[in-house]
Amino acid sequence: MGADKASVSYQGTSLAVRLLEVLGEVSTNVLVASGDGRRLVWLGAEQVADVLPDAGPLSGLVAGLERARTPLVAALAVDMPHASAEVLRLLVELWDGHDAVLPVTESGLEPLHGVYASAAAPRLRREMEGGQRSLRRALQGLDVRMVERAEWQAADPEGLFAWNLNRPEDLTGPP
CATH number of the domain at 5-164, please? Predict the structure, then answer.
Protein backbone atom coordinates (compact mmCIF):
# COMPACT_ATOMS: atom_id res chain seq x y z
CA MET A 1 0.00 0.00 0.00
CA GLY A 2 2.96 2.32 0.44
CA ALA A 3 1.77 3.41 3.90
CA ASP A 4 0.88 1.98 7.29
CA LYS A 5 -2.45 0.28 6.56
CA ALA A 6 -3.87 1.23 9.96
CA SER A 7 -3.91 4.89 9.02
CA VAL A 8 -5.06 4.43 5.41
CA SER A 9 -8.43 6.05 4.80
CA TYR A 10 -11.17 3.91 3.29
CA GLN A 11 -14.53 5.52 2.56
CA GLY A 12 -13.59 8.48 4.75
CA THR A 13 -12.39 6.60 7.84
CA SER A 14 -9.03 5.08 8.72
CA LEU A 15 -8.91 1.30 8.63
CA ALA A 16 -7.93 1.13 12.31
CA VAL A 17 -10.87 3.28 13.40
CA ARG A 18 -13.24 1.15 11.31
CA LEU A 19 -12.06 -2.00 13.09
CA LEU A 20 -12.30 -0.39 16.52
CA GLU A 21 -15.92 0.42 15.75
CA VAL A 22 -16.64 -3.20 14.77
CA LEU A 23 -14.87 -4.56 17.82
CA GLY A 24 -16.70 -2.06 20.01
CA GLU A 25 -19.97 -3.61 18.84
CA VAL A 26 -18.99 -7.02 20.21
CA SER A 27 -16.78 -6.23 23.21
CA THR A 28 -16.11 -3.62 25.85
CA ASN A 29 -12.48 -4.78 26.16
CA VAL A 30 -10.65 -3.82 22.96
CA LEU A 31 -6.92 -4.39 22.69
CA VAL A 32 -4.83 -3.51 19.65
CA ALA A 33 -1.74 -5.53 18.74
CA SER A 34 0.21 -2.72 17.13
CA GLY A 35 3.64 -4.19 16.55
CA ASP A 36 5.64 -2.09 18.98
CA GLY A 37 2.77 -1.42 21.39
CA ARG A 38 2.95 2.36 20.77
CA ARG A 39 2.59 3.19 17.09
CA LEU A 40 -1.20 3.58 17.16
CA VAL A 41 -1.43 5.88 20.18
CA TRP A 42 -3.62 8.19 18.08
CA LEU A 43 -6.40 5.57 18.29
CA GLY A 44 -6.80 6.03 22.02
CA ALA A 45 -7.09 2.26 22.50
CA GLU A 46 -5.07 0.00 24.74
CA GLN A 47 -2.15 -1.50 22.79
CA VAL A 48 0.08 -4.50 23.22
CA ALA A 49 3.46 -5.13 21.60
CA ASP A 50 4.00 -8.23 19.50
CA VAL A 51 5.66 -11.07 21.39
CA LEU A 52 8.47 -11.21 18.82
CA PRO A 53 9.22 -8.12 16.71
CA ASP A 54 8.65 -8.49 12.97
CA ALA A 55 7.26 -12.01 13.37
CA GLY A 56 3.95 -11.37 11.63
CA PRO A 57 0.32 -11.72 12.70
CA LEU A 58 0.95 -14.81 14.83
CA SER A 59 3.12 -12.73 17.17
CA GLY A 60 0.42 -10.06 17.56
CA LEU A 61 -2.27 -12.68 18.11
CA VAL A 62 -0.26 -14.40 20.84
CA ALA A 63 0.37 -11.05 22.55
CA GLY A 64 -3.33 -10.23 22.47
CA LEU A 65 -4.39 -13.64 23.76
CA GLU A 66 -1.85 -13.49 26.59
CA ARG A 67 -3.10 -10.04 27.67
CA ALA A 68 -6.80 -10.94 27.29
CA ARG A 69 -9.09 -10.45 30.25
CA THR A 70 -11.81 -12.63 28.77
CA PRO A 71 -12.00 -16.32 27.79
CA LEU A 72 -12.77 -15.41 24.16
CA VAL A 73 -11.00 -12.92 21.94
CA ALA A 74 -12.14 -11.57 18.57
CA ALA A 75 -9.21 -11.09 16.20
CA LEU A 76 -9.37 -8.89 13.10
CA ALA A 77 -6.76 -7.84 10.56
CA VAL A 78 -6.53 -4.09 10.07
CA ASP A 79 -6.80 -4.44 6.30
CA MET A 80 -10.34 -5.90 6.38
CA PRO A 81 -12.49 -2.78 5.95
CA HIS A 82 -15.76 -4.71 5.90
CA ALA A 83 -15.09 -6.74 9.04
CA SER A 84 -18.42 -7.87 10.42
CA ALA A 85 -19.71 -7.71 13.98
CA GLU A 86 -22.51 -10.06 12.88
CA VAL A 87 -20.02 -12.68 11.72
CA LEU A 88 -18.06 -12.32 14.97
CA ARG A 89 -21.27 -12.77 17.01
CA LEU A 90 -22.05 -15.91 15.02
CA LEU A 91 -18.57 -17.31 15.67
CA VAL A 92 -19.01 -16.67 19.39
CA GLU A 93 -22.36 -18.49 19.33
CA LEU A 94 -20.68 -21.49 17.66
CA TRP A 95 -17.86 -21.65 20.21
CA ASP A 96 -18.07 -24.78 22.33
CA GLY A 97 -14.70 -24.88 24.02
CA HIS A 98 -12.70 -24.82 20.77
CA ASP A 99 -9.30 -23.12 20.57
CA ALA A 100 -10.62 -21.06 17.66
CA VAL A 101 -13.77 -20.58 15.61
CA LEU A 102 -12.88 -19.38 12.12
CA PRO A 103 -14.78 -18.80 8.90
CA VAL A 104 -13.80 -20.51 5.68
CA THR A 105 -14.22 -18.68 2.37
CA GLU A 106 -13.27 -19.45 -1.22
CA SER A 107 -9.78 -18.25 -0.26
CA GLY A 108 -9.57 -20.75 2.59
CA LEU A 109 -9.43 -20.30 6.34
CA GLU A 110 -9.76 -16.69 7.55
CA PRO A 111 -7.64 -16.69 10.73
CA LEU A 112 -7.70 -12.90 11.08
CA HIS A 113 -11.47 -12.56 11.23
CA GLY A 114 -12.18 -15.02 13.97
CA VAL A 115 -12.65 -15.86 17.60
CA TYR A 116 -9.97 -17.45 19.76
CA ALA A 117 -9.94 -18.93 23.24
CA SER A 118 -7.39 -17.06 25.31
CA ALA A 119 -6.40 -20.49 26.67
CA ALA A 120 -4.90 -21.27 23.24
CA ALA A 121 -2.12 -18.73 23.81
CA PRO A 122 0.46 -21.16 25.28
CA ARG A 123 0.16 -23.59 22.35
CA LEU A 124 0.40 -20.80 19.80
CA ARG A 125 3.40 -19.34 21.64
CA ARG A 126 5.15 -22.72 21.55
CA GLU A 127 4.58 -22.89 17.78
CA MET A 128 6.01 -19.40 17.36
CA GLU A 129 8.99 -20.02 19.63
CA GLY A 130 9.65 -23.19 17.64
CA GLY A 131 10.14 -21.03 14.57
CA GLN A 132 6.65 -21.04 13.10
CA ARG A 133 5.64 -17.71 11.57
CA SER A 134 2.62 -18.82 9.56
CA LEU A 135 -0.59 -18.36 11.51
CA ARG A 136 -2.40 -20.90 9.34
CA ARG A 137 0.26 -23.52 9.98
CA ALA A 138 0.33 -22.77 13.71
CA LEU A 139 -3.42 -23.44 13.82
CA GLN A 140 -2.95 -26.99 12.55
CA GLY A 141 -2.17 -28.17 16.08
CA LEU A 142 -5.27 -26.56 17.59
CA ASP A 143 -8.91 -27.52 17.89
CA VAL A 144 -10.37 -25.20 15.26
CA ARG A 145 -14.09 -25.08 14.55
CA MET A 146 -14.29 -24.24 10.85
CA VAL A 147 -17.38 -22.31 9.83
CA GLU A 148 -18.30 -22.86 6.21
CA ARG A 149 -20.19 -20.42 3.98
CA ALA A 150 -23.51 -22.16 4.57
CA GLU A 151 -23.22 -21.20 8.25
CA TRP A 152 -21.86 -17.64 7.99
CA GLN A 153 -23.73 -16.53 4.87
CA ALA A 154 -26.81 -15.35 6.80
CA ALA A 155 -24.56 -12.97 8.77
CA ASP A 156 -22.80 -11.62 5.65
CA PRO A 157 -24.45 -12.76 2.39
CA GLU A 158 -21.74 -11.27 0.15
CA GLY A 159 -18.81 -12.46 2.26
CA LEU A 160 -17.35 -8.95 2.30
CA PHE A 161 -15.99 -9.46 5.82
CA ALA A 162 -13.12 -11.46 4.31
CA TRP A 163 -12.14 -8.94 1.64
CA ASN A 164 -8.90 -7.12 2.37
CA LEU A 165 -6.93 -4.20 0.99
CA ASN A 166 -3.56 -5.03 -0.49
CA ARG A 167 -3.00 -2.43 -3.23
CA PRO A 168 -3.87 1.25 -3.64
CA GLU A 169 -6.38 0.28 -6.33
CA ASP A 170 -8.33 -1.69 -3.72
CA LEU A 171 -9.32 1.60 -2.10
CA THR A 172 -12.09 1.94 -4.71
CA GLY A 173 -13.92 -0.98 -3.06
CA PRO A 174 -14.48 -4.70 -3.57
CA PRO A 175 -14.50 -6.08 -7.10
Answer: 3.90.550.10
